[in-house]
Design brief:
It is a single chain. The chain is mainly beta and about 350 residues long. The protein has helices at about 5-15, 70-75, 175-180, 280-290; strands at about 25, 45-50, 60, 60-65, 85-95, 100-105, 105, 115-125, 130-135, 150-155, 165, 170, 190-200, 210, 215, 225-230, 235-240, 255-260, 270-275, 275, 300-305, 315, 320, 330-335. The chain folds into three domains: about 25-125, Ferric Hydroxamate Uptake Protein, Chain A, domain 1 (Beta Complex); about 130-230, Beta Complex (Ferric Hydroxamate Uptake Protein, Chain A, domain 1), CATH 2.170.130.20; about 240-335, LCCL-like domain (Ferric Hydroxamate Uptake Protein, Chain A, domain 1, Beta Complex). It contains four helices and 24 strands. It has a twelve-stranded mixed beta sheet with strand order 11-12-16-13-10-9-17-18-21-24-20-19, sandwiched between helices. Strands 1-2-5-8-4-3 form a six-stranded mixed beta sheet, covered by helices on one side. Strand 22 and strand 23 form a beta hairpin. The relative contact order is 0.11. Residues about 1-25 and about 125-130 have low confidence and may be disordered.
Length: about 350
């Protein structure tokens, strides 16, 4: 087996399964977006701790990618240094000029032409960390180079074990969920939530057999990860994208999950009305149901239901859902009662 083949297989699996990592990063007040340069249009969510020390910022609304993201978020009025919080940025190309300004106690500087930028999409003071919904194929290859940064993923129950290379320190193309079983943090039967840290590549990885999983040896490789924590307890608030469906949650009848969808979404396919097939785009179904908009995104809660004999399509809120016959899994939205 050669390194190229392994990476190619991981890429093919991601393309075939639609795997997408929209992760939440534990940042500090010096964190910038320089390592994300060139990922134009992609979005990343950062959690910053309370009691931050303000750093340097260039720009207003559109910031240079070497600006302190947290300090720019204070400048933008999204979080405070005292409380910290959670923000989502979108990577943009470099610009010819950046205008400085004073906002919310932060003075940003002007700058000329620069190679990379970012803008804020959402933000919340004192934000609580959430998890990314992964599947049992998900690897950390898309996070390579973000050394020292931590990501939390939730993996559903009844997983199919994949390939793993290493022990304690794993190659970043290993199945994260399977590595977590190997590490004794979760089980394939129950799934669970794990936090891992991105590490640099190593000269060698040692295989072993643990908890029913045999990992393989490997030589020099370009990226690694190691676990920080893990729990068999499910994470019920999940950061997602507009392709996310509920198919990975099939069979968890009556259980509820909350999804956070970013602004600027692209509508996908939906089958049903009120009761939706579990392979429908949850976010698009939420637009159909009138709960969020593609422009602003939003947060919705679904409840997993059994499959139905038929699903009725309709046109609502600019979204046309389709009819479908018998299907194996469904979901409905849980709408909180109106405030008095």
């Amino acid at each position: 087996m050669i390194q190229f083949t392994r990476v190619t297989l991981v890429v093919l699996v991601c393309l075939l399964t639609g795997t997408a990592a929209w992760a939440e990063v534990q940042g500090d007040w010096t964190t910038s977006a320089t390592r994300l340069r060139g990922k134009n249009g992609q979005r990343f969510t950062f959690v910053f701790p309370a009691g931050g020390t303000l750093g340097s910022v260039w720009g207003t609304d559109l910031y240079t990618d070497d600006s302190s993201i947290a300090t720019a978020a204070v400048h933008a009025g999204l979080i405070t240094a005292a409380k910290g919080g959670t923000v989502t940025i979108e990577i943009r190309p470099g610009a010819a000029t950046y205008a400085g300004s004073t906002r919310n106690g932060v003075t940003s500087s002007g700058f000329g032409s620069f190679g990379g930028s970012f803008v804020f999409v959402t933000g919340a003071a004192g934000g609580k960390a959430k998890s990314t919904l992964g599947d049992w194929h998900t690897s950390a290859t898309s996070l390579r180079g973000m050394n020292g940064q931590r990501f939390t993923y939730f993996f559903p129950a009844n997983g199919t074990l994949g390939s793993v290379w290493g022990t304690d320190l794993y190659t970043d193309d290993s199945s994260i969920a399977t590595a977590a079983v190997h590490a004794g943090l979760i089980t394939a039967e129950k799934g669970g939530t794990v936090t891992f840290e991105i590490r640099a590549g190593a000269s060698a990885y040692k295989g072993s057999t643990r908890n029913g999983v045999t990992s393989s040896d490997y030589g020099a490789y370009d990226g690694s990860f190691a676990f920080v924590s893990g729990s068999a307890q499910e994470s019920k608030e999940l950061i997602s994208d507009w392709k996310t469906s509920a198919s990975a949650l099939r069979g968890k009848h009556g259980q509820r999950y909350t999804f956070v969808f970013p602004a600027g979404g692209t509508l996908g396919s939906v089958w049903g009305t009120d009761l939706y097939t579990d392979d429908s785009s949850i976010a698009t179904a939420a637009v159909h149901a009138g709960l969020i908009t593609a422009a602003k995104g939003g947060t919705v809660t679904i409840e997993i239901r059994p499959g139905a004999a038929s699903y009725t399509g309709s046109t609502r809120n600019g979204v046309k859902s389709s009819n479908y016959g018998s299907f194996g899994g469904s979901f409905v939205f849980i709408v909180p009662p109106p405030k008095k």
